[in-house]
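Tutorial handout. Part one gives the primary structure; part two gives the three-dimensional structure as tokens.
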Amino acid sequence: MKIRPIVSARMFSTLAVIVVTLVCANVASAQESSTTGRSLIDLTPFFGVGLAVIGAAMGISKLAASAYESMARQPEVAGTIQTAMIIAAALIEGFTFYALFICSQK
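Part two.
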């Protein structure tokens, strides 16, 4: 009987990327206090941008992995799968740009 580890390498790498994003956003968003009354560090838009980019990257990577696996299993329908993959990736990127636009609004 094989015992699986509680934290896999994939889960650890995902958590490491999230932690690095949060640490970098904290340093990048530090600014002097202005007369508008905003706090010294406001992470809300930067956190949203980070989540949008991480989610899009994970979605496109899963999409590409699944498409390549299905093309390897059935090479005769590779053209159809590739077309569907490109359309889906374009929709994911469009949503990501929209999310980045929404998050960058002040």
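Part three, for discussion. The chain has one domain: 9-29+42-104. Residues 44-73 form the longest helix (30 residues).
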